[in-house]
Write a structure and sequence with these properties.
Length: 180
């Protein structure tokens, strides 16, 4: 079972993440994903097929997201049972409120380790082009959801690093502020 706990980030890691977050504001420089994109459903529920999460990597992701200012982890309000929502405090100012899926969630992680997240639309297109994500089936049906994607389950530490950059972009896009 995955746990959600508050952990302090070492100063060196915080400095690295601050640098990474600053580069997000200038645009992500994503690598091409090496692995084949997993098959997914093309309807709701929108899930991956045949992929198992790596629990340690999912836990690392949750621990990282839990350090974002004004974010709580909890049962999703908009996704599958067992999914964990990345929920913003109700008093958090939003730069792009139209990108919130519902219930104050800017993203959520599914039991299979994949995520739905609202990315800046140009970043979402680049993540799809480079094999990191696929548009949500409803992404073109609601104003503000142009960047709503499923980010594939990270299977390695290197993939997790890219996924974390995408989640940081989602937070920055929705709130207008850096995660660090």
């Amino acid at each position: 079972m995955l746990r959600c706990s508050r952990k302090r980030v070492p100063l060196a890691v915080a400095a690295f993440l601050a640098f990474t977050s600053q580069s997000l504001a200038q645009g992500l420089d994503l690598p091409m994903r090496d692995a084949e994109p997993p098959r997914t459903t093309d309807s709701v529920p929108h899930v991956q097929l045949g992929i198992e999460p790596v629990p340690e990597l999912v836990q690392n992701m949750l621990d990282h997201v839990e350090t974002f200012p004004g974010v709580r982890l909890g049962a999703t309000r908009v996704s599958l049972p067992g999914a964990i929502g990345f929920q913003l405090d109700t008093n958090m100012p939003l730069a792009n409120p139209q990108a919130i899926v519902g219930g104050g969630e800017f993203a959520h992680v599914h039991p299979d380790g994949s995520l739905h997240a609202s990315l800046e639309p140009a970043v979402a297109r680049e993540a799809v082009r480079l094999g990191w994500a696929i548009p949500h089936p409803w992404a073109d049906q609601r104003p503000g959801w142009e960047g709503f994607v499923m980010i594939y389950t990270p299977q390695t530490r290197q993939e997790l690093e890219v996924v974390l950059r995408l989640v940081e972009n989602s937070y920055a896009y929705v709130t207008g502020q850096s995660a660090f």
